[in-house]
Amino acid sequence: MDILWLGEETCHDVALTGGKAASLSFLSSRYRVPPGFCVTTTAYGKWGGTGKAASCPEDLGKLLETAWARLESDGEGPCRVAVRSSAVDEDGQQASFAGQYETFLNVEGVVALSDAIVRCWASAETERAIHYRETRAERTGNAGLAVLVQRLVPADVSAIAFSANPVTGNRDEIVVNAAWGLGESVVGGMVTPDTFVVRKKDLTLLKQEVAEKDCMTVSIQGGTEEVRVPGFMRKAASLEPDQVTEIAQLARDLENHLNHPVDLECAVADSVLFLLQCRPITTV
Amino acid sequence: MSTHHHSLNPMSETNQPKPIPDPPDFPVILENPDDAQLQWEYDTTHSTGPAPLLEFQAFWKTAFEGWSSANESLGIPLRIRATRLNTYFYIAILPAVAPEEMPEAMNKAEETLNGQINRLESLWKEEWLPEITGHLAFWDAFDLSGAEMSALMDHLDETLDRFLELFTIHFVIISPVYVAMSQFDDLYRDLFGSEGALDSYRLLQGLDNETVITDRALWTLSRKALKSSEIRQAIATHAASEIPTALGAFPAGQAFWSEFQVFLEERGQRSTFWSISDESWIENPESPLMSLKEYLAQPDRDMDAERETLVSDREKAIAEARDRLKGYPRQAAAEFERLLVAAKVATVLTEDHGFWIDFASSYRLRRVLMEVGRRFADADALKVAEDVFHLTVEEIRGTGRDAETADLREKVVQRSNEIRQWEAVSPPPMLGTDFGVPPEDFFMRAMGKFLGAPPEVSEDPKILKGHPGSRGKVTARARLLKSPADSEKLHPGEVLVAQTTAPPWTPLFATAGAIVTDSGGVLSHCAVVAREYGIPAVVGTVRATELIQDGQILEVDGDAGVVRIIADNEPG
Questions:
Q1: Higher pLDDT, B374 or A144
Q2: Nearest partner of B72 among B43, B129, B112, B120, judged by Cα
Q3: How far is A132 from chain B (nearest CA, A)?
């Protein structure tokens, strides 16, 4: 039970795989989710937390080798992964804990992967995260942490979509924010993204604001880097109209499917749209 | 041509035009008083001093008319005017549309040029080059010496028409060429940062062009000459002008000389600068013979291996860039590949267009005019054939009808005296109206990289700032050269300092350790060829030939675009 693959029935269990991974696992049968697996809360429990062990348990290391090989065969080109923490009390309907745990992108090889997993675990123990949970008074009694490992989508464009307008609260509108490159600069607010407002009913594009996007996250050896957006792309719309429609439709489908307004992260790589994360909107 | 004098200017609505007072020693008398509202600039890259009337009328004015008509056909909203003031050539660039229409017109032009950039190689091979060689073949098929005077006059008219067509093609070619290189450079800096001013040019080096092929052919001849001690002796012990006679004195020498003639026929259709009044190498091979003589004294070098090094370094740089781009959005990688393909072709065309148009066609124009001059001299209308360059086309036509009774000799004396009179004056860099720095649209940006923007002013008199031209740093003795004819004083490894170096100067790059020029930018002929030689170059210093003294020890830092005067003339 240390490793569960996205799409497996047991992987949908929040207690084992955390909110983010459980929801992606559940959605992976109907939506294009990058292949991946989850290092469960059970594995985290065996590791035992701060101070006890800085490295990856031997048993898990062996499992990771097998898992890496499977992931490598499941897709084209060199295998790189995104490693994200998936907490049991994160991404639940009660509170949005976005960004509270570590994310490692463009991780290559089993050694770097084990290292990233251990760092995710360690980060859960940091004061910052503990403090956040305490002040939110959301002590659910379960601070279990899972780690989600997925093939990295070599994104040309990353987007966040809201199936209800997060600014006005209007539930008839879908809002898509998008910018060049990997998702970090969009999610982290380093870049002002393009904004597209779409009417939910018929997916008509109502408004489009193309921003001057000056930075983007790109993959470099062993990680990512913020770089300047080249001049010719800076003021160009990051999404074509039909791509905006495709993302809006995805948001609408997910809302219908989950019976709740959602926000989602997605990425376009070589014109193919991938769903990276989906969670309920807690503010509307 | 429509002009918009209200706020002329190439492109600015904000710059306040300021009339430039006439310098006391340089009266400005313009054909049309309105022309004082244009910004007239002295082109130091191509012209290097006072020049005769016909040089202006038949060559320069026609060439710049070609630029205007090329701009018209490409939708570039700029027109070019040329004028000759006190025997110096000045050009003015003026807008073809109202200032408020400028940005949109420029955007359209950029689209058109991008269309050409995307198929630069096929345009060159399938359209432009065949058209150029078609014109050259026309001239080569004409029997100049056998033609009747009236046929020769008709031929002259046709020649001038074709020359204009060729220079229209010339500017149709160079617009996408320099824009492609400029855009590739800009994209590279955008993608990978701009620490190294010349980094992007590593990806464009080791691409053969007609200029370096010509130089290599000359070098190969020098290696041949070395194989025979007789030939080597004849060349080494005679002044360049005596070498042909010396070689003619023995069979092996005669054989070598005819091989040299083949080289000249193929590659000697060029004079020292862009000029029709200067002799070509074919007429006077002194300049390549001096290079040959100098090469004989140099140790063997493997030019192919040198080129291979440039090529493998280029491929390494391209592979590194591609590797980094794997982590970037595909749009960025695709744009990089698009502009890399174009910039590679463009790099070669910066030199090859000159080989085929500037030099091959002006050589043929000169031949026609010299034939006319010879006829006039035979009829005693002129003293010598070369004097034809002091006439106007209209005077030539008039005389052609009546050469026997015409006498233009007095006129020629006056006009050549005029040139002599102005030789001592330095022409002001700008006349008319100063519009300030033009806003940088994509086109002027590319042209600026060719011509060289004014460099930073250096506070330290021992430091001269210019533009990075070619990578590397060299410390060596300065040699100021006015022309390749001075090349005897340039020793291997020394720094060649010159106002500008036209492609016919580049055989000297095989001798020089570094190059410093007054004019030009990172895309100038000098910089492009210095990169092919892998020697440091600092270009566009404006004042190198004025501030550097022959024999001083210089440190030339090509990457920084800076020249330091390390020591004054030392005996040596």
A1: B374
A2: B112
A3: 34
Residues of B with Cβ-Cβ distance to A220 under 8 angstroms? 324, 327
Q: Is the pLDDT of residue B539 over 90?
A: yes
Q: CA of B530 to nearest chain A CA: how many angstroms apart? A: 29
The answer to whether B335 contacts A220, with C-beta atoms less than 8 Å apart, is no
Q: Looking at residue A91, what is its pLDDT?
A: 45
Per-residue pLDDT, B502 = 84
Q: Residue A83 half-sphere exposure, CB side, CA atoms within 13 Å?
A: 29
pLDDT band at A123 (very low <50, low <70, confident <90, very high): confident
Write out the DSSP string of B282-335.
TT-THHHHHHHHHHHTSPP--HHHHHHHHHHHHHHHHHHHHHHHTTS-HHHHHH
Residue with tokens 């591609």: B322
**Which of the residues A233, A238, A243, A271 would you substitute to probe the B interface, choosing the one with the greatest number of B C-beta atoms within 10 Å?**
A233
Q: Which region holds residue B534: left if phi is over 0, alpha if psi is between -120 and 50, else beta?
A: left
Residue closest to A265 by CA, chosen among A148, A170, A171: A148
- pLDDT for B424 beyond 50: yes
User: Per the CB < 8 Å rule, is B331 touching A233?
Assistant: yes
Q: Is the pLDDT of residue A100 over 70?
A: no
**A153 to chain B: closest CA residue:** B327
Distance CA A95, CA A71 (A): 32
Q: In this complex, do B191 and A156 lie within 8 Å of one another by their Cβ atoms?
A: no
CA B99 – CA B421 distance, rounded (Å)? 41
Distance between CA B506 and CA B519 in Å, rounded?
16
User: What pLDDT score was predicted for residue A23?
Assistant: 92
CB–CB contact A228 B187 (8 Å)? no
Residue type at position A52:
K
Chain A residues closer than 8 Å to B182 by CB? none
pTM given for the model:
0.90
Encoded tokens for B312 = 């493998």
In whole angstroms, give the CA distance from residue B502 to residue B211.
Answer: 10
Supply the mean pLDDT for chain B: 92
pLDDT tops 80 at residue B318 = yes
Closest partner CB to A157 (pick from B186, B326, B329): B329
Q: Number of A:B CB contacts under 8 A?
A: 44
Which ipTM value was assigned to this complex?
Answer: 0.88
Q: What is the residue type of B117?
A: I
- Cβ–Cβ below 8 Å for A219 and B327: yes
Chain A partners within 8 Å of B110 (Cβ): none
Determine if residue B380 is left, alpha or beta; phi over 0 gives left, psi from -120 to 50 gives alpha, anything else beta: left
Q: What's the length of chain B?
A: 572
Q: How far is B187 from chain A (nearest CA, A)?
A: 6
**CB neighbour class for A66 (10 Å; exposed up to 12, middle 13-18, buried from 19):** exposed
Q: What is the pLDDT of residues B138-161, one digit of tens each?
A: 999 999 999 999 999 999 999 999
Residue B519 has pLDDT above 70, yes or no: yes
Determine whether the interchain pair A227/B191 forms a contact, defined as Cβ–Cβ distance below 8 Å: yes
Cβ-based contacts of B331 with chain A (< 8 Å): 156, 180, 233
Which residues does chain A have within 8 Å of residue B327's beta carbon, measured at their own beta carbons?
A: 106, 154, 218-220, 224
Q: How many whole angstroms separate alpha carbon A236 and alpha carbon A209?
A: 11
Give B14-60 pLDDT, tens digit per residue.
568 899 998 888 988 888 888 999 999 987 777 778 999 999 999 99
Three-state secondary structure of B92-116:
EEEECCCHHHHHHHHHHHHHHHHHH
